[in-house]
Amino acid sequence: MTKVVILCGGMGTRLREETEYKPKPLVEIGGKPILWHIMNHYAHYGFNEFILCLGYKGEMIKNYFLNYKTQTNNVTVSLKTGAVTLHDSETEDWHVTCVDTGEESLTGKRLRLIEPFIGNDENFMVTYGDGVSDVNIPALLSHHVAKGKLGTITGIKPLSKYGSLCTTEDHIITGFIEKPQLNDRINAGFLVFCKDIFQHLDDNMFEFTTLPALASREQLAMYQHDGFWQCMDTYRDYLHLNKLWQTEKPWKIWK
Question: Which of 212, 188, 192 lies closest to 202, judged by CA?
């Protein structure tokens, strides 16, 4: 089974209201960490082997999974013996490997450090612990295999953070467009790599070193996604995602 690597080590400084006391992947949307939402996305398609690259406050993420059963189920505790009984304990069939990749490490180093946990898998997937989407994961993986490149990036057209003006040629405003969709595609953070990628990684931000180098050699493919995508960079994004969860739940593809 193709493994899923999730980058969970950043400090999330632009979301300081929430990340001062917890790592960004544990910031909650609808009462559940955004990391839980991301993992459910992959698990919906049968990808349930996860490797988490831990860094800033990584022990909190490790403890979250160590105590997952007792946190997510009703329990009875015997204070005399310490025995714990779980009630209605239906728990996700996930295999989660937590790897300490360093609090100050950049993304390239974090990926290098999890190489031993990939094993003999020909390909593995990578995403970030702060973005949700309804990307079709099997289609993404199939596209990667068909293209035969070292890596595949999911490309999306994001919405502008600002509204735009509709004007005539003589600069008369005729209307407004609230947050139009941009024409250029960006990296949405749902990636697939061949295991040979480890030969091209350094200790820097792989987005700024490895990916441009691969692109110059035409070793990167793009999977086009025109559905939902949203990252949680700021407190405003956090509020927006929580509002969406209360109403539309556009990334909830699991039952």
Answer: 212
